[in-house]
Amino acid sequence: xxxxxxxxxxxxxxxxxxxxxxxRDVFSLKDIEKLATKKGVISQSVKEVLQSLVDDDLVHQEKxxxxxxxxxxxxxxxxxxxxxxxxxxxxxxEHSKQQAELQQSLAVTRTExxxxxxxxxxxxxxxELQQTAQALQVDLQQYAENDPERVEAIANAALxxxxxxxxxxxxxxxxxxxxxxxxxxxxxxxxxxxxxNGMTSTMDYLT
Length: 207
Hints:
3 strands, coiled coil, nucleus, double-stranded DNA binding
């Protein structure tokens, strides 16, 4: 009986991302390890995989007190895809322009009917640009195939982000009330702390 194949790094990343996108909630590392284990990711590798997602801006990390908390919304993945598409399109246009210039220059060089270092260099660059352009076309096609999901994610992003923002506003207000009760007499210092961290009393619910 063959041994069961373990998950690749990318498969582990997708499993952990699905934990966030399915629940649309905020988790501690311990919570993520428990949920990711249920999806087949061994707990010992969760921290490393999670860090790779944070490094790629697919998951956000915030330290509150002595604990780190993580979250990611489906809309962010869609925005990243859109950004990558735009970047690839710009690169493709630039490489296509360079390729056209090199082809024109090569045609002139061929009329001279003599080999030269400049001709060989330009030919090598043109061939490299052709390969790069072909690779970019493949990447663009892959993104195009995912386009319906991107459109759907963007369509739902505003509602999801609004609900999460309003839920965090409730949490902030609850924390403000608890702090004022717990540290009675320090209202001014507490309010300054909240203001300095962007949690102003004028914040209102998104509609």
